[in-house]
């Protein structure tokens, strides 16, 4: 059976930077540690005036196609995942294709185009769609481009405001991939939840505490479901575990839950029992409340052990290196985590050939998916092509007053006008409004 997976990826981050400790915290009257230690965030990326979800997606896709030497005829599918769409009918993928057709001789009239929405998990669902399309033999030798693009804005003074971010991840899905092969096994956890939603509104309504609990519950279900088809899971089987990362502090919780869950009844639990005892079991307690309190105490003790901390430092922490500096990209966040982990592995000489990543995606509303990805020999050459570090360094650093203005520019309900803070070069840009109120775009050399 021919391998199918991610052949290459590209990243485009918003060109503006908001420093949370130096700029945002003082303006809010907050201790910087609330963000850098509590949330695990140092900065957020924002789109400039001439940027939006289409330009970021098209720029990432263009760079991907140029690097891989592709023409429109090589692409049979363009899937865009976003929860920042500005049109309830016309998909973002058609805008992206229209942008790309401005710089290529051919067109994408033959390509299937769609837009996926299920909060942050839609990027992974789009990846699944492309995988299934190729597996079914319907691709006619063509590859798919899957793009996760979002501007994750919150209302001003919302508790989630510090987690904002903007950017796009474009992935080429093909046979015989050069980066990772996707596993056919998947695990899901899904339920009708109201933890985070946008009922006919741009900015989300969030029940913060509930959102964390729903995230953890669905992840646990997806992990169990994955194990039911893939077999027993052991922490040492996976050198990297990229999680959906709304902010790194959330991943700290998810990683502790996941580790506790998969060491149950293993030699690791036996070895740790000498230090912190065995995991509590429900039948040993008179009430659910007592059991849950015991689980919390055990988990806290677990995260203080040297064994857990060494595992976290090697398996989880590297996947958070980009998120700390760009914020939440909604549909792109787990894909940023994958890129960060692989980039760290290459920079530190880790041999991942043939090893598996365990990828844990999540979307509010709510659904989690867990699947494995096998790292393909030669992956280092693909990861070496990423220039995300350069993009992050080049960002224009906003003052708080400029941040307020940029927030208004990208607020659909605000009437704000401003000049770009950066000079567009070799990129697609927003160019105004068309005759039916649609957004228009052009390419600037």
UniProtKB/TrEMBL annotation:
Annotated protein name in UniProt: Hydroxymethylglutaryl-CoA synthase family protein
Database matches in InterPro entries: HMG-CoA_Synthase-like, HMG_CoA_synt_C_dom, HMG_CoA_synth_N, Thiolase-like
Keyword Repeat: no
Lineage top rank: taxon: Archaea
Annotated Hydroxymethylglutaryl-coenzyme A synthase N-terminal domain residues: 3-175
Location of the Hydroxymethylglutaryl-coenzyme A synthase C-terminal domain: 195-412
Family annotation (PANTHER family): 3-HYDROXY-3-METHYLGLUTARYL COENZYME A SYNTHASE (PTHR43323), HYDROXYMETHYLGLUTARYL-COA SYNTHASE (PTHR43323:SF2)
Family, as annotated: Belongs to the thiolase-like superfamily. HMG-CoA synthase family.
Keyword line: Acyltransferase, Isoprene biosynthesis, Transferase
Keyword Acyltransferase attributed: yes
């Amino acid at each position: 059976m021919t391998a199918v997976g991610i052949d290459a990826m590209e990243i485009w981050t918003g060109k503006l930077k908001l420093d949370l400790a130096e700029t945002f915290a003082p303006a809010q009257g907050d201790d910087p540690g609330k963000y850098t230690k509590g949330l695990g965030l140092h900065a957020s990326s924002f789109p400039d005036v001439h940027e939006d979800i289409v330009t970021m997606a098209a720029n990432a896709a263009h760079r991907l196609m140029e690097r891989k030497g592709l023409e429109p005829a090589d692409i049979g599918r363009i899937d865009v995942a976003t929860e920042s769409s500005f049109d309830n009918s016309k998909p973002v993928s058609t805008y992206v294709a229209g942008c790309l057709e401005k710089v290529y001789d051919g067109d994408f009239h033959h390509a299937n185009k769609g837009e996926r929405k299920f909060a942050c998990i839609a990027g992974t669902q789009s990846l699944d769609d492309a995988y299934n399309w190729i597996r079914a033999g319907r691709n006619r030798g063509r590859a798919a481009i899957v793009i996760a693009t979002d501007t994750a804005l919150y209302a001003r003074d919302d508790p989630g405001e510090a987690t904002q971010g903007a950017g796009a991840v474009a992935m080429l899905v093909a046979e015989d991939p050069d980066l990772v092969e996707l596993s056919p096994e998947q695990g899901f956890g899904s339920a009708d939840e109201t933890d985070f939603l946008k009922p006919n509104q741009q900015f989300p309504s969030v029940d913060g505490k509930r959102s964390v609990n729903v995230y953890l519950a669905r992840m646990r279900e997806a992990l169990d479901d994955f194990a039911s088809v893939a077999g027993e899971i052991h922490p040492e089987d996976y050198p990297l575990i990229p999680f959906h990362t709304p902010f790194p502090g959330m991943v700290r919780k998810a990683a502790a839950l996941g580790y506790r869950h998969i060491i149950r009844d293993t030699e690791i639990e036996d070895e740790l029992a000498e230090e912190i005892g065995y995991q509590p079991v429900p039948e040993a307690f008179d009430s659910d409340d007592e059991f849950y309190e015991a689980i919390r105490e055990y988990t806290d003790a677990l995260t203080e052990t040297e064994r857990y901390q060494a595992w976290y430092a090697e398996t989880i922490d590297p996947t958070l290196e980009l998120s700390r500096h760009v914020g939440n990209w909604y549909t792109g966040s787990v894909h940023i985590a994958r890129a960060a982990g692989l980039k760290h592995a290459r920079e530190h000489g880790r041999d991942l050939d043939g090893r598996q990543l365990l990828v844990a995606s999540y979307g509010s509303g709510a659904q989690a998916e867990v699947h494995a990805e096998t790292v393909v020999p030669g992956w280092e050459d693909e990861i070496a092509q990423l220039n995300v570090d350069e993009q992050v360094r080049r960002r224009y650093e906003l003052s708080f007053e400029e941040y307020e203005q940029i927030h208004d520019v990208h607020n659909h309900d605000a009437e704000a006008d401003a000049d770009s803070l950066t000079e567009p070069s070799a990129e697609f840009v927003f160019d105004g409004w068309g005759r039916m109120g649609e957004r228009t775009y052009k390419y600037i050399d």
